[in-house]
Every structure is written in structure tokens, then in C-alpha cells.
Amino acid sequence: MQFRFVSIEKLPEPPQVHLVKGNFVHKVLELLLAHDSEMRTPEAAREAFEITKTQYESSVRFIALGLSDDARDAFFKDSREILNGYYRMENPRNTKVIGLELKLEADFGKFVLGGIIDRLEYDENDQLVISDYKTGKTPSARFGANKMDNMHLYASLCLRVRGELPKKLRLMYLKSSTPIEVEVTTQSNIKCETAANRTFDQIAESCQSGVFATNKSGLCNFCAFKQWCPEFGGDDSQAKIKAPELYPVIPRD
User: Fold this and answer.
1) Residues of the domain holding 188
2) Tens-place pLDDT, residues 95-152
3) Residues 6 or more apart in contact with residue 146 via CB below 8 angstroms
């Protein structure tokens, strides 16, 4: 249901601190790594932080959080700690960046798919790698594999747009300084695209029938649309009316 409300009906969601913080950290790293490798110094990192901080303090998405002075200070303190975790993971001067916040779009036949890759690079063996920053907790082994699904789609986009299939996917959990990597193969790419087509068919069928499957779990307690979910006795038809009244519309980057 959340997918329907957010991705299909494009309903607004309430601003969330962890999402804005993640976006903030991504922007700092984007500014830092945009420099030539020899210029990615600690001073450049501090400058990137201050530039991004100034931009965010006056932005709609940050103001909408309604943070107190103490909460605002905690936001930037935690952001610094997350960025320190990045430095424990790698030296930015050694990264062979090809693209940052790289927008790719390709026709998959039944649908057109687009995505934004945090970082496309070559590793020490000159093999193509997709890296994605994560500012949340490192997932358990039980849920870790699911976190790679989007990454495999990014690999497929690279193949279709650039004509080159990445050799490796890397999730960089900054707070714990933990990288998680998987290899990409022709077989994994075929499996990914098959799953994407199957998911598209399921979405198309749901849109046609108006019936969307629900998956009740503990995550429902964090969903902005729980009050309108039929699983909790809500009226899903009211979401389109009530969500725009309750939640501010935050411009997308």
C-alpha cells in the first residue's frame, strides 16, 4: 500500500529526520568527491560540510522538520559522526570516480526505468563498481540480501546505457564503517531483469484491478499512511484527500 500511495499516487509524506540527514550526508560526499583526487583533503571535506549546512538550513525540507535548537545541533553533530565513519572506510583520494549522483534511464520493453547512482567508479583492478551510501544501521544477514535489489537494477541500467556491466556492487554503511559487496554476473543480471518484469506485471495488474496487496509487519508502525490502510481498519480512498492536507509538499531534488 505504501508503494501505491508514494510511487503511483505521488502523495506527500511527512518530513523525516533520518531521510533528510541521509540526503545531507550524500550531498557533502558529492561535493567532496567532485574535486580532483589530490584536492580531496580534510579541509575540502570541512568546506563541503559547511557549504551544505548553509544550503540546508534555509531549505524547505530542513525547515519542515521543525527542529528545536538542540535537535538542530544534534542533527549536524550526528551527520559529522556519520561522515567520520566514511573516512574510517576509505581514503577519498584513492577513489577513481566516473560519476556522482548519476542519473540513468533505459527502456526495458514493458517499461522505462530510471535511477540515480550515488557513485560509479573503477576499483584498483580497473573494474566497474557501483557504490551506494547508507546512513542507517547495517542490516542483519536475514535482510541484507534485499538491500541489494535496487543495486542490481542499477547494474542493469549501466549495461543498457553504457554498454558495460559492473563487476561489483557495494553498499557503504557509513555509521558503522561497514562495506557490503556482491559480484555481478550475466546470470545475476538476467535474474534481476526477470524479477523486474514480473514486478511490473504485478503492479500493472493491481492498477487495473484497484486491489493492492498488503504486507503487514512491524515496519507498518513507521508508515505515514497506516491510518488509511485497510489492514488497520482504514479507508484507503481517504489517503488522496487527507495526506495533502496533513503533510507539506517537499520539492524533490
Assistant:
1) 95-199
2) 999 999 999 999 999 999 999 999 999 999 999 999 999 999 888 755 555 678 899 9
3) 139
- Maximum alpha-carbon separation in the chain: 58
- Look at the block and give the residue holding cell 508503494: 3
Parallel, antiparallel, or unpaired: how do β-strands 112-122 and 96-107 relate? antiparallel
Written as nine digits, the cell of 234 is 482504514
Residues 65 and 113 occupy one common structural domain = no
Contact of 11 with 5, CB cutoff 8 Å: yes
210, with CB counted inside 10 A (0-12, 13-18, 19+), is exposed
Distance (Å, rounded) from C-alpha 42 to C-alpha 242?
A: 47
Query: Grid coordinates in use for 65?
Result: 522538520
Tell me the C-alpha distance between 247 and 64, whole Å.
10
Exposure b/e, 167-191, CB count within 10 A at least 16 = b: bbbbbbbbbebbebebebeeebbee
Let me know if residue 87 belongs to a domain.
yes
> What 3-state class would DSSP assign to 89?
helix
Judgement on whether residues 79 and 141 belong to the same structural domain of the protein: no
CA–CA gap between residue 53 and residue 72 (Å, rounded): 11
At 190, which amino acid appears? I
- The pTM of the full predicted model, rounded to 2 decimals, is 0.88
